[in-house]
Amino acid sequence: MGLVIIFSLVTLLALYGVIRSLREKNILGLLFGLGTAAVFGWFTIMTVLHHGYPVAH
């Protein structure tokens, strides 16, 4: 369960970074933010689907 929370927080912070880099017209920051949001968002979704939320024993 802790892994899902950490992945979710990283995804949310990456999305915040994407929005902020769009406002500041920072292309490199936008690319890294989108990449981070895509990778960690995928990890979040797959971890929830595979392990369940809350963790099923």
Question: Can you describe this structure in just a few lines?
Answer:
This is DUF2759 domain-containing protein. By secondary structure, the chain is an all-alpha fold.
Explain how this protein is built.
- The chain is an all-alpha fold and 57 residues long.
- The chain has two helices and no strands.
- The longest helix is centred in the last third of the chain and has 25 residues, at 27-51.
- The chain starts with a helix and ends in a 6-residue tail after the last helix.
- The protein has one domain.
The major pleated sheet works out as: none
* CA-atom Rg in angstroms: 13 Å
Mean pLDDT: 89
Strand content: under 5%
Structural class estimated from helices and strands: mainly alpha
Count of separate DSSP helical elements: 2
Task: Give a count of the beta strands, DSSP E runs of length 2 or more.
Answer: 0
Give the % helix.
over 70%
Unreliable residue stretches: none
- Domain count, please report it: 1
What distance separates the N and C termini? 12 Å
- What are the secondary-structure elements, in order, as H or E? HH
Principal-axes shape call? elongated
Element layout with pairings:
Layout: H1 2-24, H2 27-51
Helix pairs in contact: 1-2
